[in-house]
Specification:
4 strands; 4-stranded antiparallel sheet; 22% helix; alpha+beta; 89 residues
Amino acid sequence: YPYTALVGIRIRGRTIDEVGQDLLAIPEVFSILSVIGRNDLEIQVVARDMATLNGLLTETIPQIDGIVGVESALAMNIVKYDHPWGRFE
């Protein structure tokens, strides 16, 4: 999965937990964080190719009920990626 994108999501009409549950069903979504700030959720997605990433960001994710905004950034170079604490529950 050479493509990694950081995605901010704005939600209206549904709870963060409800939208989060829908995002859990997408295999390429590997991180879902509830945040304070401009967005309601920040997620990380991976893709094998640009066409798949495009589909995720323009079709799959925006079509989830309650999502009113998607703002993405493609990771160009991952300088550090370390999860020493294990999985967050």
